[in-house]
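Action item from last week, closing it out:
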Amino acid sequence: MKNILLVDDSEMDNYISEFLVKESNLAEEINVFNSPIEALEYLAVLQSKQEGFPDAIFLDINMPDMDGFGFLDEFSKFPEEIIKRTSVFMLTSSNDENDIEKALKYSVVKKYFVKPLSKAILNEIILDNESSS
């Protein structure tokens, strides 16, 4: 993975996630957004340039201006060739079975994790990524 996008309204969770991703050398570039709407606008710009689209997105569910499901609905409207290159990982405080089930119905969502991000979660993603490539 070269490029990771973090989308979470919690600055503390973003700080922890960014630190751990940097420490793990999982990505060359990390972009952080507190607003899913701003993240979608950023992705639209990347799409028009046709470069730098994230390999992975870590997405929270509970956010004030648009929730993670709203983000997924909008993200699903991007061209198929872009979507299939991006893995979305739900990273949220919700361990509600309904949220888990709903999130995993989206084909772009690869896994569902409960915050905070940890080395164990990153190792699982790295191992899954290596075994699928």
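Closing note: The mean pLDDT is 93.
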